[in-house]
Write a structure and sequence with these properties.
By secondary structure, the protein is of the alpha/beta class. It contains ten helices and seven strands. It has a seven-stranded parallel beta sheet, with helices on both faces. α7 links the parallel β4 and β5. The radius of gyration is 24 Å and the shape is globular.
Length: about 325
């Protein structure tokens, strides 16, 4: 590095800098795990308050078999109009099948902003998964994460020492894995003891740890439920979660079917190593795509035909990403 000094490269040789970062890297994951414990118990306690008010409502919803159970994220933008729920990830999928007479219920990941818990219950169509959560689930997730042992044997690849890269990932993931494990425990408990019975489970597919744990929880419970992952975003080549390593597709949890966001992205997913069937479902994220096409007037058609067939392509604000796209094209 010293060969690059005075060429916009700053070399740090202060021992205190490295000691400070070493201490941070050693203890930061544990701080995040304890934060998980505090957040989870707080969420569990707040949920108990709402359960008292809404238990009869929830029991009535889950009494009969559900046709489609949707598992998705809950955010501020999920409630644009007071307590009316609108899924920003799966669009009008729920409304589309509800109009066809299917019984559809939405569930959530265990932990989300607790001030939104009230809105989920008041919507009358969402069952937060924390409703089925137990204190033992939280404590087991906490203990499992804090005493987690990682494989220290990291082989060299193409002459490169990847150990620093894996160590960085270990620091980042050790404080997050507890959330995914809690999700697994609750989901497997729900389906193992048939607290909810459904024909189909649908979720926004991104091949992240949380949806792998969702699939694994249902499979371990041996539930007779078809799992459908709806892919609803594009796939940049630096999103490595969509690209499986050699042989990974045979061992990692996958849904029964992936509904791709168009033909092109379906082909990308097939080449990425997924072993489950992949079908083109179009972009269901946008409500207009689930509506019947409107008949255009002859005057509008003439206006469109007179225009130049130009396409506006807007590049990213990141120069690096824009250049990657241009070179790819």
């Amino acid at each position: 590095l010293y060969n690059f000094k005075n060429q916009n490269v700053f070399v740090v040789n202060d021992t205190r800098y490295f000691v400070k970062n070493w201490v941070k890297n050693q203890y930061f994951p544990y701080a995040r795990i304890f934060l998980f414990l505090i957040r989870s118990i707080k969420m569990w306690l707040v949920n108990k308050i709402y359960v008292v008010r809404h238990k009869n409502q929830i029991e009535k919803i889950i009494k009969d078999k559900i046709d489609i159970l949707i598992c998705t994220w809950i955010e501020e933008r999920s409630f644009k109009e007071k307590n009316i729920f609108s899924d920003p990830y799966l669009g009008s999928l729920k409304d589309y099948y509800a109009r066809k007479g299917f019984k559809i219920i939405t569930t959530t990941l265990p932990i989300f902003p607790h001030h939104l818990l009230k809105k989920t219950y008041q919507s009358g169509e969402i069952i937060p998964s924390i409703y089925f959560g137990k204190l033992k689930h939280i404590l087991k997730s906490f203990s499992k994460s804090i005493f987690l042992h990682w494989n220290k044997k990291i082989p060299w690849t193409n002459g490169l020492n990847l150990k620093p890269l894996f160590n960085y990932e270990k620091i980042q993931e050790k404080g997050k894995i507890c959330y995914d494990f809690l999700h697994y425990l609750i989901i497997s408990d729900i389906f193992k003891y048939q607290k909810v019975s459904c024909n189909i489970l649908v979720y926004p597919f991104e091949n992240q740890p949380w949806d792998k744990m969702l699939v694994m929880g249902i499979r371990d419970a041996q539930a007779k439920c078809k799992i459908i992952g709806c892919h609803n975003i594009s796939i940049p080549f630096f999103y490595l979660n969509f690209f499986l390593g050699e042989g990974e597709g045979r061992v990692q949890p996958q849904p029964d079917i992936i509904i791709s966001n168009g033909e092109y992205w379906g082909a990308v997913l097939k080449d990425a190593g997924f072993s489950c069937p992949i079908k083109n479902g179009g972009s269901i994220r946008f409500s207009s795509n689930l509506k019947p096409p409107k008949q255009e007037s002859s005057a509008l058609k003439d206006t469109v035909n007179e225009r130049n067939n130009n396409v506006l392509v807007l590049l990213s604000t990141s120069v690096k990403y824009s250049l990657d796209l241009l070179f790819y094209l």
